Amino acid sequence: MTEFDSRVRQVRPDQWGSSTPCKEWSVHDLVNHLVYEQLWAPELLAGCTVEQVGDRFDGDQLGDDPVRSWVLAAAAAREAWISPKALIRPVHLSGGRSTSVEYGWQMTLDLGVHAWDLARAIGADERLDPDLARTLLEYAREHLAEFAGSGIFGPSVPVPDDASDQDRLVALLGRTP
Q1: What is d(CA 43, CA 77) in angstroms, rounded to the nearest whole number?
Q2: Strand 90-93 relative to strand 96-99: parallel, antiparallel, unpaired?
Q3: How far apart are CA 158 and CA 37, in angstroms?
């Protein structure tokens, strides 16, 4: 969350319409996607099902102040994640019932790779924390078969043998480092 947060705070007013490495998404669309994801976290961690949440977070969640919208949604998600028993509750995701730990990994991967996407889109420092990049790469490799064909990530991109963990991560998820 920290990696994505630092990039959102760097978006200049004239960059919200800029393109990103995510096909067909502008900076606005990318940040809106992550705000949307953060808004879901408190609901799902409280035991709500996808059907119970419904479409209440569909559409533009950024309004007139995208950074503020991000900060509020991220703070609510963070509070939900650190609440007592958050990591031992089952959650109901669009793909069915899961553990909150698995949901946390999915959210962390999404935040990490989109931090890189956002940095690339706005010309900010693209470097992720090396420990985070290594850990997310391990997670992504373990779950690559689950991602394949889901449309969540593009096809993997080849990288040189000496590529960093970060470059391997973004390439594995369909981005050109």
Answers
A1: 9
A2: antiparallel
A3: 29
pLDDT tens profile 6-57? 999 999 999 999 999 998 999 999 999 999 999 999 999 999 999 999 999 9
The pTM assigned to this predicted structure is 0.95
CA distance 67 to 46: 25
Please, are residues 109 and 136 in contact by the beta-carbon 8 Å criterion? Answer: yes
Q: Please say whether the beta carbons of 16 and 67 come within 8 A.
A: no
- What are phi and psi for residue 35, nearest 5 degrees? -65, -45
Which residue type sits at 159? V
Helix (H, G, I), strand (E, B) or coil at 126: coil
Buried b (16+ CB within 10 A) or exposed e, 128-156: beeebbbbbbebbeeeeeebeeeeebeeb
Runs of H (alpha helix) within the chain: 2-8, 27-45, 50-53, 66-82, 100-122, 130-147, 165-172
d(CA 6, CA 114): 12
Task: Retrieve residue 90's tokens.
Answer: 């089952």
Yes or no: say if 62 and 69 are a contact pair by the CB < 8 Å rule.
Answer: yes
The encoded tokens of residue 63 equal 């309004």
> How far is the CA of 97 from the CAs of 49, 106, 175, in angstroms?
9, 14, 29
